[in-house]
Amino acid sequence: MEIERKFTIKELPENLDSYPHVEITQAYLCTEPVMRIRKQDEEYIFTYKGKGLMVREEYNLPLTAEAFQKLLPKAEGHVISKTRYQIPLRQCYSCDHALSDKEADLIAELDLFKSPTDLIMAEVEFPDEESAHAFTPPAWFDQDVTDNPAYHNSNMSKR
């Protein structure tokens, strides 16, 4: 089960390149249901995602480089290319924001899209729905777009 919220970004965190990051190429074989292939640095993954916005089923299976290359031409829409930064949120809050135990371990996955759009967006995954609803985003986050399907990567690939 995937429980995540998505946000647009007001400003990038300082020292962005100091955070771990990966290059991602992903494409969608189908968008209803979502079936995605992804190359993340040198790792290849097939993902199935069920319906939903904040909460939905998600299954990840390993894929070979050869299978990825054979499936890539069969993709619907545009191939998505992005750099993903893993930013521990405990490093991003001001001193006046008290973190709960659950918030202290949260990671923002900051995506800088290269194609088909130049969007910058962050996703935060949660251990449960209660934590997701209680989450107070850091100041550098902007709009909460969790409930807007236009911000799902699968829909962005169709534009």
List key phrases describing it:
159 residues, mainly beta, Hypothetical Protein Pfu-838710-001, 10-stranded antiparallel β-sheet, 4 helices, globular
Structure class: mainly beta
- At the fourth level of CATH, the homologous superfamily is Hypothetical Protein Pfu-838710-001
Radius of gyration: 16 Å
Number of DSSP helices?
4
Most strands sheet: 10 strands, antiparallel
Overall mean confidence score, pLDDT: 92
Q: Can you give the helix content as a percent range?
A: 10-25%
Order of helices and strands: EEEEEEHEHEEHEH
Low-confidence stretches: none
Shape: globular
- Give a count of the beta strands, DSSP E runs of length 2 or more: 10
Strand content: over 45%
What can you see in these coordinates?
The chain has 159 residues and is mainly beta. The protein has one domain: Hypothetical Protein Pfu-838710-001, CATH 2.40.320.10. 13% of the residues lie in helices and 45% in strands. The protein is built from four helices and ten strands. The protein has helices spanning 65-71, 101-104, 129-134, 153-156; strands spanning 2-9, 21-31, 34-40, 43-49, 55-56, 58-62, 76-88, 107-115, 120-125, 141-144. Strands 1, 2, 3, 4, 5, 6, 7, 8, 9 and 10 form a ten-stranded antiparallel β-sheet that branches. The longest helix has 7 residues, at 65-71. The model has no long low-confidence stretch (mean pLDDT 92).
